[in-house]
Amino acid sequence: MKLRNRIPKIDGVGAHREVAVETTYERILPHMRRVGITRLSDITGLDRIGIPVWNTICPSSHDMISVYNGKGGTDLAAKTSAIMEAVERFAAALPMRPEEVASVAELRAAGRAIVAPDEVNLEPFHVCGPDTPISWVKGHDLGRDEEVLVPLYLAGYYSRYHEVPSHRLGTTNGIASGNSVEEAVCHALCELIERDDWTMADLIGNRMSRLVGRGTFGSATGPVLRWLHERHRNVDLDTLPPSAQRYVRMYRDAGLEVSLKDLSSETGVCTVLALVAENIASTFSQSHMGMGTHPDAETAVCRALCEVAQSRAVDINALREDITLPGEEVEKFFFHVRRSGQVNKEAWAFKPSESLVRFGELPHHPSDDIVADIDLMMGRLRERGLDRVVVVDLSPPGIPVSVVRVIVPGIESWIIDRTKLGPRAAGLWEGTLGQIRRACDQADESVREGV
User: Fold this and answer.
1) DSSP single-letter state for residue 233
2) Per-residue confidence at 435, pLDDT binned at 50, 70, 90?
3) Which of 22, 36, 275, 359 has the fewest CB atoms within 10 Å distance of its CB?
4) What are the tens digits of pLDDT across the range 23-52?
5) Which strands form 53-57's sheet, in the order they lie side by side?
6) Who's near 420: CB < 8 A, 6+ residues apart?
7) Integer Cα distance of 126 and 352 in angstroms
8) CB 135 within 8 A of CB 70
C-alpha cells in the first residue's frame, strides 16, 4: 500500500475531504441497496437545536445495531455522514479470505511481521494463546513501510465469528471510510487519537480526582484537586472562530448552555469534549457529549459541537439497539452508550475550570493537504513511542468508497471498551500518583508544623 504524496483539500483547509460532499453523495446513492440501507431519515426536528442529524436504517445488518447516524453543518453533509457510517459497518463485517492460518509462535519463528494480539490494548480471548492457530489477513505498516499480518478478528468487526477470536471484544475503533484510502486513514487516526486522549483525561481528571477527594492521600487535598482539575480547562467560547460560534448560538437559542473542555495531550493534536446537560425526563439521559479530534482545531471543535446534537437527537429517536436506560445493568463495554441518570456538576467534566483556554491556545496545525495531516499525526504518535500505524484495506467491492481499519499498537482505548489499560496509561497513572503523594505529604507536613 502506497499513499499518495499530496492530496489537496477541496475547501483549502480544515477537514480531510478531497471532493465536495455533493460528489460523495452522488457516488454512493446508487449503491445503498448493496449496503442494506432501506431508509434515510432526517431526525433533526426531534430536538430543538437545529444542527442537522440523519439516520440510515439497515434492517438486515450483520452488526448488533441496524441504525447508523450522521451529523454535519448541512442536511446533505449529515445525510452523507450517516450513509458512510453504514458503509463502514457493512464493509467491516464482510468475510475475508485469510492470508495465513497459523499461531503467533509459528509466524514469529518464520520471521513474519505481525501485529500480535497482546500488542494491542484489548483484552485477549482467554483460550487464544501463542500456540493457537488463528486466521490472519494482510495489512501495511505505514511507519515501517512493510507488509504485516493482522488477526482477522481484529481487522474486521464481527458479531458472529467462525473460529476462536483473538480478543474478547470486537470494536469499531479505527474503522473509517472516505472518498479514498488516504481520507479514510486520516479519519481513523483522528478517532484513535481521540479515544487515547479521552482515556488519559478520564483516568486523571475523573478517577484520580475522586481518589484524592475521598482523602486517600491525606486531608490537605484542595490544591491537588485544583491542579488536577486545571489539567483540562474549559475553552473560552467567545474566542471561537465564526464556524463554531454559529453552533454555540444554536445551542443558546435553544435555551441550552454548551461547554467545551480541552482534552489535548502531549501528542499535540487537538481533542475537545463538548457537553450539554438538561433534565427532561427520568428515562432520558441527563447529559450528552460529543468529541472532536483533528490537527485543525477549528475542525475538532465543530465536530464536537455537532456530535452533541447528534447524541441528543439519537437519544430522543430511541432506535439504536445499544442505548440503554439510566442505571440498567449492562456489560462494561456499553457504559459509554448508557443513558446518564444524574449529573454531578462537581465532576471534572462539568465543573468549569478556574481559568479558560482561548481558541488560539489550542493545538492548531491547519493545512491544505490530507497527506500532511496524516504525516503530522504519525509523527506526533512516533514521538510518543507509537511508531507502528498498520492499515488494513476493507474497501467493499463495487462501491466507490474506501474503508480501512487502522491499528496503532500501544494506543489506549479503555474509555470505550473498558477491557485493558496499556503501559502508557499505567505510566501516566503512576507518574501522577507520585506527584500527588509528594504534594499531599508536603501539605500535611505544613499543617502539622502550623499546629
Assistant:
1) P
2) confident
3) 22
4) 999 999 999 999 999 999 999 999 999 999
5) 39-42, 53-57, 67-71
6) 121, 122, 123, 414
7) 43
8) no
